[in-house]
């Protein structure tokens, strides 16, 4: 009997940048499915759990990992940067996969996937997005700060973001560095299939933001599925069914 993925010992990838990345890999037939998680998410989430089950049953090759300062990888969040997380994703793609990859990004992972498409267009054969938070730091997080929070950021150099299991330090340096990795300010060349799932009740990433990403990626083979009663997490059984269907389509 297969044990849950989060109960299996993690494997580890030492990157040239000095990070030691925790990952888990269901080894099967390609193309590999690479999961790119959201902000402060980890490998214990319901989406990864469901895709792991499907990969085992269907013989898929499925790979997920924790970014620096996330989950089992760990690290000081004060040292986290968008470029560092991109480096983690590139290391996983370059060293743990072969051939064409069907990549799926959830929330912030949608931003990471957009960056991967730009950096490795020859490796990404298909792209799936769930509530994609493209340019999440500069287009979503920073504009959402109240005037008082903006003053705090300017004066102290750090904003303590709440809404998670602990306050998360987001420094001015974090936001400044994020501008170097924006994707919505120019077309993203890509000719593979793109599929987006987005809930219309999403109060974190508005569904109109998903449309903006759809318009930015150049491929004509791009579709968005709007879920009228769906929230940001898209973790209900019916949402997970849609996710599995999307991944199955992208692997073809």
Describe the structure.
It is a single chain. The chain is α/β, with parallel strands linked by helices and 252 residues long. It has eight helices and ten strands. The protein has helices at residues 46-58, 82-96, 108-119, 136-144, 147-156, 172-178, 207-216, 237-251, and strands at 11-14, 20-26, 29-36, 60-65, 101-106, 124-130, 158-161, 168-171, 194-199, 222-227. An eight-stranded mixed β-sheet has the order 1-2-4-3-5-6-9-10, sandwiched between helices. Strands 7-8 form a two-stranded antiparallel sheet. Strand 9 (194-199), helix 7 and strand 10 (222-227) form a beta-alpha-beta unit. Helix 2 (82-96) crosses helix 3 (108-119). The two termini are 28 Å apart. The mean pLDDT is 96.
Blueprint of the fold:
Layout lengths: L10 E4 L5 E7 L2 E8 L9 H13 L1 E6 L16 H15 L4 E6 L1 H12 L4 E7 L5 H9 L2 H10 L1 E4 L6 E4 H7 L15 E6 L7 H10 L5 E6 L9 H15 L1
Parallel strand pairs: 3-4, 3-5, 5-6, 6-9, 9-10
Antiparallel strand pairs: 1-2, 2-4, 7-8
List keywords for this structure.
252 residues; alpha/beta; 8-stranded mixed sheet; 8 helices
